[in-house]
């Protein structure tokens, strides 16, 4: 079997998805590996993989797609009446109220409007692996803009705030609730804390490939480490955060921090979103229509101080209905730095999961658009 061979299955009517996946893998040279999975309702209709050493059950770092899993935990606790989105964070965590943060609510944090995207002096990679350490550092930090006045993505820290609220109010960590309420009942290959026993299924994330000229042109445009963008992406620490190395470190995978420390497969991502909105395995959907509607509602859509105009958010989730205009207006999900992508579209019933092991050198993943469109076309045609 060659390294460019496409493995797995597609349902009748989804052959074009297989062809699009093959084209995406070939464009990357084939050796680094990728996975694609999709549900329509409760039916797995796409289950594909390719690349050297990559199988359907291979696990790799999903980076900020982790935020989708953590947000699902918050949605379940809101649905249960345990969490109040509009209660000040300082109400359960008094230390967080310091330095002008007393009025910040959980809704502000989930919609990236808190202004708390890092700490002065930066956080080391070791600190960024642990939500509890991040939270302790953030408690005394002054926001980088007046809370509520602007949106800005805290790529590696925002869900440490969420996690501390969950721990103090629910008495359990985000990781524990996800394991008990979501991952274990559905047998999902998506982990916020990868067990040692599954380490043999993990495949390292690989750096992007580019010519010296491409790299020089790219880095000439990268904002400085002390800029808002630099702080939001952890570049303000010494040394600057190496995103590739981040999830290739066992400690990060073991702790599964809620902003970017998750490990999983395309099957796991797609199944999580299918379980959330459609239900799988004969189970009812995890979210009621009211809860799904609240968390899919657009919250921050007028540009992002960290990532630019493409940063548009629902509540905790990215606004995928704005990202992919062929989807319904209430589509929601979350992508990740190395090229992971995942979402649910309640209108069509599509749940989508994609992983790849190699970063793009410029964080551009045009195959997302083509793969998502191919899945949606096949789903709505059938």
Describe the structure.
By secondary structure, the protein is an alpha+beta fold. The protein has one domain: DD-peptidase/beta-lactamase superfamily (Beta-lactamase, 3-Layer(aba) Sandwich), CATH 3.40.710. Helix content is 35%, strand content 12%. Helix 1 packs antiparallel against helix 15, helix 2 packs parallel to helix 6 and helix 2 crosses helix 7. It is globular and about 55 Å long. The protein starts with 6 loop residues before the first strand and ends with a helix.
Structural class: alpha+beta
Percent helix, as a range, is: 25-40%
What radius of gyration results from the CA coordinates?
19 Å
Provide the residue-averaged pLDDT: 95
Assembly context of the chains: single chain
Which residues form runs of ≥5 with pLDDT under 50? none
- Amino-to-carboxy terminus distance: 32 Å
For the record, the count of structural domains works out to 1
Key features of this structure:
15 helices; 382 residues; Beta-lactamase; three-stranded antiparallel beta sheet; globular; seven-stranded antiparallel beta sheet; alpha+beta
